[in-house]
Design brief:
The protein is mostly helical. About 90% of the residues lie in helices and about 0% in strands. InterPro entries: DUF4226.
Length: about 120
């Protein structure tokens, strides 16, 4: 009677090992997911902060009426706005690149989570 009990215990241990391995994979995937979400959130907050600073700078310039009514003032104001537009484009490009990289990581996590789901 000890032989069936021994094989049952071996089967239980084997199943525990399989589940422990899946738990380890899931835990690592969870850590990666947390890092991806934290980084994405921080990137969004940084981008918003930078865009808000640019908007405030443009508003201050408008309120100070630095463009004036002269051709030189108008040209300087146009240069200022073009520079701000470049800064905005750089912020958006950076955020987009980070978003693409994080999307790739998330796609990879799907497979890792799927492998944990099949018992």
């Amino acid at each position: 009677m000890s032989e069936p009990t021994g094989s049952l215990m071996a089967a239980i241990r084997e199943r525990q090992n399989v589940l422990a391995g899946k738990y380890g994979v899931a835990a690592e995937a969870d850590r990666t997911l947390s890092e991806v979400l934290t980084t994405a959130h921080q990137t969004m907050l940084d981008s918003i902060r930078r865009l808000d600073a640019i908007a405030a700078e443009i508003e201050r310039t408008q309120q100070a009426d630095l463009a004036g009514d002269t051709p030189l003032g108008t040209r300087e104001y146009q240069r200022f706005l073009v520079a701000k537009q470049r800064e905005i484009a750089a912020i958006l490009t950076d955020a987009q690149e980070i978003s693409k990289a994080k999307s790739l990581v998330l796609r990879g996590l799907q497979d890792r989570y799927r492998s944990c789901g099949s018992a």
